[in-house]
Specification:
Strand content: under 5%
Largest sheet: none
Order of helices and strands: HHHHHHHH
Structural class: mainly alpha
Number of strands: 0
Distance between the termini: 24 Å
Shape: flat
Helix content: 55-70%
């Protein structure tokens, strides 16, 4: 709800109404659930193992590209960068919960590509740190009068 009430203009533009933002969010959620469940059924992924990992990849890789496109540190912080690197490390090491729960899918010998994806994910999370470092520093006070997080 915070997005459609407080951040609506930043996300959808000056002309976006509250109802348009709510409709857009509802449509996105509907599309997500339908497509996710269709893919789950098609891939035979009843326990969601593959999709949980996919979300980790997106979470770790996408912010750096997003910040680079936006060209500002506002809305991000160093703590987030550190967490993203740690998520990549914890999700893709040989002793992670996925490998312990289901070694037939996630052991190094049974699925080396999982760990290749993990290395790429970690590198892109680290790249996000470098992208963040190159961006201009946040102002002391934001245009709305609030102080930004570190």
């Amino acid at each position: 709800m915070r997005t459609v009430t407080y951040e609506r203009v930043e996300i959808w533009g000056e002309d976006a109404t509250l109802m348009e933002a709510i409709k857009t969010c509802a449509l996105q959620v509907l599309i997500f659930f339908v497509s996710l469940n269709l893919l789950r059924v098609e891939l035979g992924d009843v326990s969601m193992f593959k999709f949980w990992i996919f979300t980790q990849v997106i979470i770790c890789c996408a912010p750096g590209f997003h910040w680079e496109r936006r060209g500002t540190r506002i809305g991000a912080c160093w703590q987030l960068n550190i967490v993203l690197v740690l998520v990549a490390i914890m999700s893709f090491n040989p002793w992670n919960m996925w490998a312990l729960i289901s070694p037939q899918f996630f052991s190094v010998s049974n699925n080396p590509w999982y760990y290749v994806v993990g290395c790429v994910t970690l590198l892109l999370a680290i790249r996000g740190c470098f992208v963040y470092k190159k961006l201009p520093k946040k102002p002391e006070v934001l245009p709305d009068g609030k102080k930004p997080i570190f």
